[in-house]
Design a protein that fits this description.
It is a single chain. α5 (86-104) packs parallel to α7. This protein has 19 helices and no strands. The protein is mainly α and 407 residues long.
Length: 407
């Protein structure tokens, strides 16, 4: 009996030691995560113009995971889920993602929208449509402001186009593209997830995210840090600074605290970073010189209909085949000194036509990765069959509006 007691005491002591070790290591791991994420923009600096997208791909997924761990994803999803009619709910979220992309960059919108949209849906069919709405809203909404998309930043900074001049010529095409894509999205979704005139679905038959307690001081502080980071990023975009830095700081703080308090584990953070997206950026950086040389082989487009169409087709084809970041690197050389309207036409290609392929936009890669993590998978063949219609509708509407504005 005494021997059994000694064994039990020894095993309990070892278990206590292991538990103590885990608890002691969490703050250390949290500090390490925070330091890595906050330092991401500096570590990516050798990539030049592509350093911001590289850093954002590293810091945005952990930022979204941290907010989810603090309960904010479920809180937003629960509010959106109060809209009972599936189609109205889908179009409302699409509009929210358009605004989020315009003000907080498409990469933030893609990560947050995919996660929240999937949580809002009440059945598997709608979950797929919500993921599609997140991809469409994030990409199309990124046309509005110079800092809404990293491709915008690269082109605007390279061509010397000012903030006011960009907005004056891009606002009309951006709104036209968003409306055209939204109308097509609504028409396709109507038969798939519900008629807006159908009866409301009873609350007891709907799957709504469980209530999450965000009243504790730590969760409220986390929300405040995220808002401050977003506001700082907007301010940085307005003055031409690196928008990745504020997001890196807020993401590092939130992810670090989430890990240190046991709300999030390091493995989840590591798995959230899209390796494919980072590879695309690295390849674009390595191939920057050949890309620049190729830009000299094409005639520089003017503001005529033919010139605008050429800019749109080149930008869209480059983004759809490769990705919108190498396409932006090409445009930064090709469009130096070009008319502002041609810059916007090119961005219609890199932002809207890029929707045609699952790898055409970093935001699409991010959103699909979030969907995969939540069990909502979209095979590449299925994506290709449906996405080209949105790309064509948005690009055509945007080009028509651009021609009218450029006159």
């Amino acid at each position: 009996m005494a021997s059994l007691a000694r064994v039990a005491w020894t095993e309990r002591s070892r278990a206590d030691e292991r538990l103590l070790l885990v608890v002691d290591l969490r703050p250390v791991a949290g500090v390490a995560v925070a330091m890595i994420l906050i330092g991401a923009p500096a570590l990516a600096a050798p990539l030049g113009r592509l350093s911001s997208p590289f850093a954002l791909l590293v810091v945005l997924p952990p930022l979204a995971l941290a907010l989810e761990a603090f309960g904010w994803r479920d809180r937003l999803a629960r509010r959106l889920a109060r809209i009972r009619r599936p189609l109205a709910r889908l179009l409302t979220t699409y509009a929210v993602w358009l605004g989020t992309s315009s003000l907080l960059t498409l990469d933030v919108a893609a990560v947050a929208a995919a996660s929240v949209g999937i949580a809002v849906a009440d059945r598997d069919a709608e979950r797929r449509w919500q993921l599609g709405g997140a991809i469409l809203g994030a990409n199309v909404g990124s046309m509005l402001l110079p800092f809404s998309n990293l491709t915008n930043l690269v082109l605007v900074s390279a061509t010397g186009l000012g903030f006011a001049a960009y907005v004056a010529i891009a606002a009309g095409p951006a709104l036209a593209a968003a409306l055209a894509v939204g109308l097509l999205f609504a028409a396709r979704a109507r038969g798939a997830i519900g008629d807006p005139a159908q009866e409301d679905v009873p609350d007891q038959d709907r799957v709504v995210p469980a209530p999450t307690d965000v009243r504790d001081s730590l969760a409220r502080a986390a929300g405040g840090v995220a808002v401050l980071g977003a506001v700082a990023a907007v301010a940085a975009g307005l003055v031409g600074a690196d928008v990745a830095v504020p997001f890196a700081v807020s993401g590092g703080i939130l992810a670090g605290v989430a890990v240190a308090t046991g709300r999030l584990d390091v493995g989840a953070i590591a798995r959230s970073v899209p390796v494919a997206g980072l590879a695309v950026i690295a390849i674009a950086a390595i191939a920057s010189e050949p890309i620049g040389s190729a830009a000299g082989l094409l005639p520089r487009p003017d503001a005529s209909l033919g010139g605008l169409l050429l800019a749109l087709v080149v930008g869209g084809a480059f983004a759809a085949v490769a990705n919108n970041l190498p396409a932006a690197a090409f445009g930064a050389v090709w469009l130096v000194g070009a008319h502002p309207a041609t810059v916007v036409a090119y961005l219609l290609g890199t932002n809207v036509v890029a929707l045609a392929t699952p790898h055409g936009s970093i935001a699409t890669i991010l959103a699909r990765a979030v969907g995969h993590r939540h069990g909502v998978r979209t095979p590449a063949t299925r994506y290709l069959r449906t996405a080209w219609g949105y790309a064509a509708a948005g690009a055509a509407a945007g080009l028509i509006a651009l021609v009218l504005v450029a006159r």
